[in-house]
Amino acid sequence: MGKKEKTNPRARFLTETAWEVCNQVGGIYTVIRTKAASIVEKFGDNYCAIGPYIHRDVRGEFEPLDDLSSPFGLAVKLMRDSGLNVHFGRWLVAGRPLVVLLDPKDALENLSEIKYFIWENHYIGIPEDDKLINNVVAFGYLVRIFLKTLAQQIQSKDQLIGHFHEWMGGTSIPDLRKNKVNIKMVFTTHATILGRYLAMNNPTFYNHLPFFEWEKEAKHFGIETLARFERAAAQGCDVFTTVSDVTARECKYLLGRKPDIVLPNGINIKKFDVQHEVQVIHQEYKEEIHQFVMGHFFQSYSFNLDKTLYFFTSGRYEYVNKGFDLTLSALSILNERMKKAKSEMTVVVFFITNKEVHSINPDTLQSRGVMEEIRQTCDVIIRQIRDQLFHSTAANAQYYLPDLNQMVDDYWKLRLRRTLQSWKTDDLPPAVTHDLVNPQNDDILKYLAQSELQNRQEDRVKVVYHPQFISPTNPLFGIEYSQFVRGCHLGIFPSYYEPWGYTPMECIASGVQAITSDLSGFGEFVLRTIPNHENSGVNVVRRSKQTDTVSAEQLADFFLTFIHSSRRSRITMRNEVERCAENFDWKYLISHYLKAYNLATEKPMEV
Fold first, then answer.
1. DSSP tag of 180
2. What CATH number is associated with residue 243?
3. If exposure means fewest CB atoms within 10 Å of the residue's CB, which of 147, 185, 194, 474 is most exposed?
4. Is residue 252 in a domain?
C-alpha cells in the first residue's frame, strides 16, 4: 500500500448512476462524493454522475449549466425536447464533476406500463403502493432513456461505461441489456439486500451462507422485489463488483454470481489534513467533551478528568450488526477488571447512534444549563478577584498574598453556594441523554439494566448513550461530529455485519486509534494489506472463527492495554495513525475502479 498505481482508462466516457448522487441518504453518497475528484482527474468532463431530483435541498449541491454542447448535454437537450424535466450542471464537491439529475415524477404517469413490461420481460413483480420503490423504478426508466440517448451521441469507437450502484441505481440494467444499448455496464453492490436482513436475524449467518434459499428468505422478509432487482443487475452487467472480500462471499450465494473484482472504498485525506496539529486539535475538542462530562456526571459525583479517557462507537442503530452487543460485553468485563485492580483511571464510553426520540431528557438539559450558570458566576468572581488582587498586590509592601475571600462580594458567594446546592443530587447520572420513544424495547438500555454498568461512582467505566447524531446545533455538545471524534481517544467498531465500514477509516484519518473486526470489509482489508497494523493504531478483533465470549475478552484485553499506555505513547500513536490513513486515500484506491472499467471494455458487445 501507499504506492500510486498508474492505471489509465481505455474507455473515453463514463457515467455513474446512484440514488445517492446529490442525495445524502447513506454511505454510498460518501463513496461517490469523495471519489469524484480522482475520477475527474482521469476522465475530466467525459465523466458524468446521474442521480434523482427528489428534493429541493439538492440546490445546495448543484450548479446548473447552460452549455449543452457535450454528448451529455446533447442527450439532456433531446430529453428536454421530449418534455422531460432534466437538470444538468456540476456537483459542488471536490472535482466538480458533471451531473444529470432526473425527476422520477416525469415517469409516474406511465408507471403501470413500466411495471408491466418489467414483469413481462424480467419476471420482477412490483407492489402497487410502495412510494420508494415506485420512485426508484421511475428513476430507472429515465436512466435507461438517458443512457440510450447518450450512447447514440457517442461514436462506437469511444466506448461508453455505465457504472451502477446498488439495486436503486441498477434497475435499468436488465432493459439496457435487453435493448442491446451500446454501453458496457459495471454494477456494484455495497451490501446485499438479503445479507443485511439475514445477518440481523441469524447469529450463524456466515456459517449458513451456502444453505440459504434466497427466494424463500426474500419473501420471508418482504423484500422480494428489491432482491430480484439486485439479482437481475448482478447477472445482467458486464462486470460485477463489490466493496470487500467479506461481501463477495455472500454475493456468490445470495446473488448467484461471484464478483469479478473488489473495489475497496477510500477517503479524501486532504479533508482530514490538519498540518501536523493532531495533538493540539485533540486537546481543543477534548475540552469540549470535558464540558459535557462535567455537566452529565459532576452533578452526582466527580472524578479526575486528567485521568479520564474517552471511547466512542457510532453508526446506524443495528445492535448486533454494528457490534454494540460485543462492545457492551467487553466494557462490562473491563469495568470489573478495573474495579478489582483499584484503577485510578476512568473510561467514559459514548454510543452515538440514531433512534426515534421525543426530546433531550429535561434533567440532562437542566443539569447542563445549571452548570453553565455556575461557570458564569465563577467568571464574575474571577474578574472581581483579578482586578482587586492586582491593585492590592501592587500596593502591598509586606509581600504576602492577601485574603482572596475578602475580595468577593457576599452576593456572589451566596449565589454560587445556592446554585451548587440546587445542582447537586444523589441520583446516578443517566445512561441515556434523550427520552426514547420506545425505551422498554431498546437493546442497549436492556443490557445496561441487566449489567453492572450503572454509572455508579465506583464504576471505572461510564456509559453515555446519545441516540442522535452529533451536530453543532445539539445543545449538549455544540460541535461537529468530526470534532467530537478528534476529541476522543479511541473508536470502537467491532461489527458483525459490515460490508465496508467508513467510521473506523474516518476515525483513523482524524488521528484517532480505532478497533474494527475481521467480519467488516475494512477490517479484512487491513489484515490483508497492512503488515503490523497494530503498530499503526489500527486494531482488528477476530470474530470469524471464535465465539462472541472469546471476542469480548480479546476486546477487553485491548482496552486494558490501551488504558495502561502512557500519555506520551498515545500522542506518538496519534501521529502514527495519521500516517497510516494515507493508505486509504482515493489516489491509491481509484486504480481498482479503473481496472474494473478496463475489464468491462474487454467484454464483447452482444449482437
1. T
2. 3.40.50.2000
3. 474
4. yes
Clarify whether residues 330 and 249 are in a common domain. Answer: no
> What is the domain range of residue 488?
280-361+430-584
**What is the distance between the alpha carbons of residues 516 and 391, in angstroms, rounded to a whole number?**
58
404 neighbors 382 (Cβ within 8 angstroms): no
* Model pTM score: 0.87
In tens, the pLDDT along 11-64 reads 899 999 999 999 987 789 989 999 999 999 999 999 999 999 988 778 788 999
Q: Is 350 within 8 Å of 464 (Cβ atoms)?
A: yes
Q: Which residues pair with 423 in a beta bridge?
A: none
Three cell numbers written together for 93: 464537491
Regarding whether 237 and 97 lie in a shared domain, the answer is: yes
The tens digit of pLDDT for each residue in 351-405 reads 999 999 999 988 888 887 887 888 888 888 788 777 777 777 766 666 666 677 7
pLDDT at 4 over 70: no
Task: Please tell me whether residue 311 adopts helix, strand or coil conformation.
Answer: strand
Residue with cell 458483525: 496
Q: Residue 205: inside a domain, yes or no? A: no
Rounded distance, CA 376 to CA 382, Å? 10
In this model, does residue 143 exceed pLDDT 50?
yes
Measure Cα distances from 369 to 198, 374, 475 in Å. 45, 9, 10
C-alpha cell at 151: 450512447
For the cut 50, the answer to whether the pLDDT of residue 174 exceeds it is: yes
Question: Per-residue pLDDT tens for 313-339?
Answer: 999 899 999 999 999 999 999 999 999
Question: How many domains, the chain?
Answer: 3
- From the number of C-beta atoms within 10 Å of its C-beta (0-12, 13-18, 19+), residue 142 rates as buried
d(CA 246, CA 349): 28
Q: Indicate the residue type of 516.
A: T
* Cα–Cα distance measured from residue 591 to residue 248, given in angstroms and rounded to the nearest whole number: 19
Shared domain for 470 and 484, answered yes or no, is: yes
Can you give the pLDDT at residue 1?
A: 52
Domain assignment present for residue 329? The answer is yes
Mark whether 72 and 47 lie in a shared domain. Answer: yes
DSSP per-residue codes, 478-517: -S-HHHHHHH-SEEE---SSBSS-HHHHHHHHTT-EEEEE
Alpha helices in 237-361 (DSSP H): 245-254, 278-297, 324-340
Supply the mean pLDDT for the chain: 91
Residue 394 covered by a domain: yes
Locate cell 478496463: which residue? 598
Per DSSP (E only), the strands in 235-277 are 239-242, 261-262
Same domain for 60 and 92?
Answer: yes
Looking at residue 14, what is its pLDDT?
A: 97
Check whether residue 592 and residue 498 sit in a common domain.
Answer: no
State the Cα–Cα distance between residues 245 and 249, nearest whole angstrom: 6
Based on the domain organization, do 395 and 537 belong to the same domain?
no
Residue range 197-207: average pLDDT?
90
Contact in structure between 61 and 8 (CB atoms under 8 Å): no
